[in-house]
Amino acid sequence: MRVMQVLSPDAKGLAAAADLLRRGELVAFPTETVYGLGADARSDKAVARIFDAKGRPRFNPLIVHVPGVEAARQIAVLDDRAERLASAFWPGPLTLVLPLRPGSGLSPLVTAGLPSVALRVPAHPVASALLAAFGGPVAAPSANPSGKVSPTRAGHVLAGLAGKIAAVVDGGPCTVGVESTILGLAGDAELLRPGGIPAEVIEACLGQPLHIGGNAVQPTAPGQLLSHYAPSSSVRLNVSAPDPGEFWLGFGPAAGKADLNLSLSGDLVEAAANLFHFLQEADRVADGSPIAVSPVPEHGLGRAINDRLRRAAAPRP
Ligand code: TXA
Ligand code: MG
To answer: Residue 221: is its pLDDT beyond 70?
Structure first.
């Protein structure tokens, strides 16, 4: 068991974090979406450690974080659509899956051997400063054990991964609160995961509707859903009036009596920022009782919120 250092987001802490990354160690850091578990994306050994620390069962591909579009162009091929989206939404919570440039230098573990790579430029000042201090691409999934609720505070990272990683840079709570939107651009633009930038906003920028692909497909049977973001209590969705004994995670003014309310005014941005912290809190306070969640509208950030809630409620393996 190793001690996890908690580093402050000042020059000294960032230099120490960059140094650990250079030595192939794992460092968790804040982004505007969730805390990421970072490793040098060019090192097989460092990237393999991510899967080990998270207990991630499959070597599925990871998102590579870069400081700007210039660094992105060295790793992937950006067509006109990618350039337009990058200038509109980077830095920010949008991940683009693009053709991998030969000789990119990335570990094949990052892309799971695919000819494409997922890239994003995070908007958090601590993430930008760390990428600048490190000077290379950083692979980073969310900094939580596989299948558990994503971390939006350094304390969540400590609770899930202490003893398994070298350090966490504490940059306070994340402002967006759900992971980035993932857009496939290998062929027709395809929404692979709803996230921090609403699909409607991307459609408006591209001037065309998105195909719905991969993870984002509305499930037709609960069994098709991969359990993920799961608290230890069971989760019941679209509940307007909870049963006695249930912990009520509310949304909007109709849930004024809820135990916790994602946003009393019904603001989806506020609800996204609160989602993972409140799921963790609900799990702690409910202490094994079922968690009942109010309906959340399926537009804007509501699509990302409902995607995470459906996975939290899915049958456990
Ligand atoms: O907000 C976020 O995106 C956070 C923060 C830390 O930046 N990161 C995150 O990373 O959620 P991660 O590694 O958990 O996201 C990985 C997902 C995969 O499950 C897959 O859906 C998609 O990114 N992905 C990565 N590479 C891909 C590829 N080449 N083709 C298709 N999908 C890919
Ligand atoms: Mg994750």
So the answer is: no
- Rounded Cα distance between 118 and 79, Å, is 14
Ligand 1 center from residue 95 Cα (angstroms): 8
The CA distance from 291 to 309, in Å, is 11
Task: Please give the Cα distance from 65 to 36 (Å, whole number).
Answer: 10
- Pocket of ligand 1 contains residue 179 by CB under 6 Å: yes
What's the CATH number for 5-216?
3.90.870.10
Has domain 222-313 been given CATH number 3.40.50.11030?
yes
CB 283 within 8 A of CB 233: yes
- The pTM assigned to this predicted structure is 0.92
| ipTM surpassing 0.85 | yes
Q: Which atom of ligand 1 is nearest to the CA of 111?
A: 29
Domain boundaries, the chain: 5-216, 222-313
Confidence of residue 217 (pLDDT cuts 50, 70, 90): very low
Residue pair 315/229 in contact by the 8 Å Cβ criterion? no
Cis previous bond, 219, omega within 30: no
Give the closest ligand to the alpha carbon of residue 37: 1
CA distances from 108 to 56, 59, 168 (A): 17, 10, 25
**pLDDT tier, 218 (very low <50, low <70, confident <90, very high otherwise):** very low
